[in-house]
Every structure is written in structure tokens, then in C-alpha cells.
Specification:
By secondary structure, the chain is mainly beta. The chain starts with 6 loop residues before the first strand and ends with a strand.
Length: 347
């Protein structure tokens, strides 16, 4: 493995566990959202009193302002305009509130915006997957749901009517959300573990996912594996002819056992050949995608591995501006840390 270009630069203390992250925003289990100045690391905006927050996604403004934000809280997706003069916002300051759960006992898990910021995808504990057209506010639910909790949903780059969802039923579903149909599917539960991995005590529940701009889908599972599926999108310039993608095919997938524990967070950096992963207990690894091998497939290999310094149970990870930002729970269980700057510069 390579030498680890990785040092803990700063840890920010928060009063509750970090549940999710974006580049400048984190949410905590006490129902708060905080937005930071990237240089000073001081809080510049906050939202309080939201209840349990499971996901946040930001809509950046080209003018350099704070932009808009969508937050998933219990059954609702709430839209906030963050360029307001108020520093501390409340739930009542949401400019739009959408109840996306048909059942009172259901819960929102992840929100995802498309490239144009005009479609909002969502997934639920019930296994439902849907999309909101933000211009008309019309909600479309897919005809096929997951058999268990749907944990992640992502739009496919360069394919404006398609998305991929994954869940605790160990399945990936590739949807055309305009037609509400499933185009293809991939059942990870039917894929055997490698000989080196031994016996896993956990099923391959999908806990995390990412789609790179070049069209490689990555998912992290509860049995300690990362799956990569190539060919999700064309990954080409609009001037070039797009190649046809034949869906979630097992012969387009490859996997690696990357940790003894659930892969709770992963992040594809813009250069498609690299992926960060983190286990629940804070084992962070940078992986490189190489190949093709003799059998014509790509492979995945670790470049370096290190455990987090202050975050002992990880909930979220992102990489930006040469940093890895990690959020989770500290060792004491009473104070919850946001590890900012436990980072490696990626050339």
C-alpha cells in the first residue's frame, strides 16, 4: 500500500451525533442543521427544531450565495432558502413542505437531486421509491418497491429519466421514473462471498451508495463489501454518441471485501478511479479502480487505510478540497464529533 497522506487537522464538537454531511453542512440527531464557513469553520447559518434528520442535499447558486437546501425529516421533505438574512431558522421558515409518506409510520431515508436541480428523488422505510417534479410539485412513485427498507436512491448521470435505488433486501433496482418501471435489477444476496472473506454474520444489506460522474455505481454493504458496477451512464461528452447501457448485469459488476464490519459510508471522488469507504467503527480506506484484468473485468485495490482519530462510530463521509470530512459519534457516547480535515490530498 501507499504511504498514508492523512492527518487529523481539526475536530468540531457538536451536541448530538452527526447523521449526514454535505460540503459545508452537517445535521445532528437533535434536529439541527449547521452550515459552516469553509475557511474559518464557524457556523454561519443554522436550522433548529426539525426532529430527526436523515438526509440533506443542497442546491448551489452560481452567484456564490448560500443556495437552497432540502432536508428530510421524519415523513417530510422541507425546502429552505438559505440566503435569508436570518442566521437561525426554524421549521416554520421552510418555503415548501412535502409529506412524502402515505403511512404515518413510514420514514424518509434519502433525498437526491438530479443534475438540473429540478427533480427530487426520495426513498422510504417501507421500500417505496419516488420522484418529485419540483416545477409542478407532482409526486411519482415507482410501481416496484423494495421488500425491506430502501436506504439509498441516486439519479444516473446523463440519463435524465433513470435512477438506481438500493436497500435492506440486498437488491439494486434500476428505474425509469417517467414510466414508473424497473428496467433491470441486481440481487446481491445471490452473489457468493470470496474464499478470503470467510463466513459473514451479516447479510449484504445495502447501507450506502454513490454514482460517479463517469457512470460507475458503488454500493457498500453490511457484510463488509464494496460493489462496483460499471456502465451506469455513458460518461461521455454530449457531443459524443452515448453507448447503450444494458442495465444492472452481474457480468458488469466486481466486488472487494474492504472491512470487517458494515460499510456505512462511501464517496466517489470526481476522478472515477478512486473511492473512499468507511466502516461503522471508523476504518477509512482509499480504493483505486484498475484493469481491465485478463478476464476483461475491472478490479478494486486499497491504496491506504487508516482509522479515524476522534470519530469512533461513523455515520457519514465526504471528500472535498483535498480533505476527507467524517461525521459520527465519539468514544464517550456523550459527546459527538465531526472530524473535519482528517484528509488526504488527492492529486
Amino acid at each position: 500500500m501507499e504511504e498514508i497522506p492523512y492527518t487529523c487537522r481539526r475536530t468540531l464538537k457538536t451536541p448530538a451525533p452527526i447523521s449526514c454531511l454535505t460540503y459545508t453542512v452537517h445535521t445532528t440527531d437533535d434536529g439541527s442543521v449547521r452550515m459552516y464557513n469553509q475557511e474559518t469553520l464557524k457556523v454561519v447559518k443554522a436550522i433548529r427544531g426539525l426532529g430527526e434528520v436523515s438526509s440533506v442535499t443542497c442546491m448551489s447558486h452560481y452567484t456564490g450565495g448560500f443556495g437552497d437546501m432540502w432536508v428530510a425529516s421524519n415523513r417530510h421533505a422541507l425546502h429552505f432558502a438559505m440566503d435569508t438574512k436570518k442566521m437561525i431558522l426554524a421549521k416554520t421558515d421552510a418555503t415548501l413542505t412535502l409529506n412524502l409518506c402515505a403511512d404515518d409510520d413510514d420514514v424518509l431515508n434519502e433525498l437526491s437531486l438530479n443534475q438540473k436541480n429540478n427533480q427530487l428523488a426520495f426513498c422510504l422505510d417501507s421500500g417505496t421509491v419516488g420522484v418529485v417534479d419540483l416545477s409542478t410539485k407532482q409526486t411519482t412513485r415507482m410501481k416496484t418497491s423494495h421488500d425491506n427498507i430502501c436506504a439509498t436512491v441516486k439519479f444516473i448521470p446523463d440519463r435524465p429519466s433513470e435512477l438506481v435505488s438500493s436497500g435492506y433486501d440486498s437488491r439494486l433496482l434500476h428505474h425509469n421514473f417517467h414510466q414508473r418501471t424497473v428496467l433491470s435489477r441486481f440481487d446481491l444476496g445471490t452473489s457468493p462471498l470470496s474464499e478470503s472473506s470467510g463466513v459473514s454474520m451479516s447479510p449484504p444489506f445495502v447501507l450506502s451508495s454513490a454514482v460517479s460522474p463517469s457512470g460507475i455505481l458503488a454500493v457498500g454493504t453490511a457484510d463488509g463489501r464494496v460493489w462496483k458496477i460499471s456502465g451506469v451512464s455513458s460518461g461521455t461528452s454530449v457531443k459524443k454518441k452515448r453507448r447503450k447501457w444494458e442495465g444492472l448485469k452481474q457480468d458488469e459488476a466486481f466486488t472487494a471485501d474492504v472491512g470487517h464490519g458494515p460499510i456505512v459510508a462511501l464517496y466517489d471522488i470526481h476522478r472515477a478511479s478512486h473511492t473512499f469507504t468507511s466502516t461503522l467503527m471508523g476504518k477509512v480506506t482509499l480504493h483505486e479502480i484498475g484493469g481491465p484484468t485478463a478476464d476483461g473485468k475491472l478490479d478494486i485495490s486499497p491504496q491506504w487505510t487508516k482509522r479515524t482519530a476522534d470519530v469512533n462510530k461513523v455515520n457519514a463521509i465526504i471528500a472535498t478540497e483535498g480533505l476527507i470530512i467524517i461525521g459520527g459519534l465519539s468514544e464517550s457516547g456523550r459527546r459527538h464529533d465531526r472530524g473535519l480535515g482528517e484528509g488526504a490530498k488527492i492529486e
